[in-house]
Amino acid sequence: MLTVYTFGDSTLDCSHYNDKGVDPGRLIVNNHDQLFPEFRGRDLFSKDEETVTDLRAYDGSVVGGLIEQIEDLEVEGPAIALLTIGGNDLRQSLADGGDFGAEEFAQSLKRFLDQLPVRPVLIATVYDPSFGDDSLQFFGPDQARGRDILRQINALLSHFGQAYGASVDLHGHFLQGQPDWLTDAFEPSLIGTSEIRRCFLDAIEANGFA
After folding, report:
1. What are the CA-CA distances from residue 53 to residues 25, 126, 156 (Å)?
2. Per the CB 3.0–4.6 Å rule, which of 33, 71, 125, 163 could disulfide with 171?
3. pTM above 0.85, yes or no
């Protein structure tokens, strides 16, 4: 039996942002065929009906709080971990106005990954809610600073993804996206949830993880 674990923030804990109550982790395991016929037969349940999810990602999480998501974790059998983190750290840094603590972010992330008893870990980069459009002013008055912090976070996430399993390029994929991929300005909509699923599922298939 394969278990798919989700950790991190609302990029994976987003079922309450759509009226169908779906999230990327559950769609990866068991597609909603009526909503997303494109993915019929691609879900992990189609390959192994014993595949299950353990959803631990929590809306609003920051990298320093990840360790709390594995406090009672006991892993038995094959498993895959999905991780999205950094978006709330970016927003906090923008609100604080100070320098982004890249070293502290990296240390917190490594501490979590080293204690996480699951391999592989698929780590996604943080998507840009402005889709690359500075006129939307998502990063506030200093767009250059905001984008620089985003680049720093994503460079770290890519590095750790490659070291612990796989890097999932949500940032690059969402730059090709549309505003209807989001709701509440930056949270995944129903369509966005499926697109997040697409990126993770592509990585799972490409690396032969399931």
Report:
1. 7, 22, 26
2. 125
3. yes
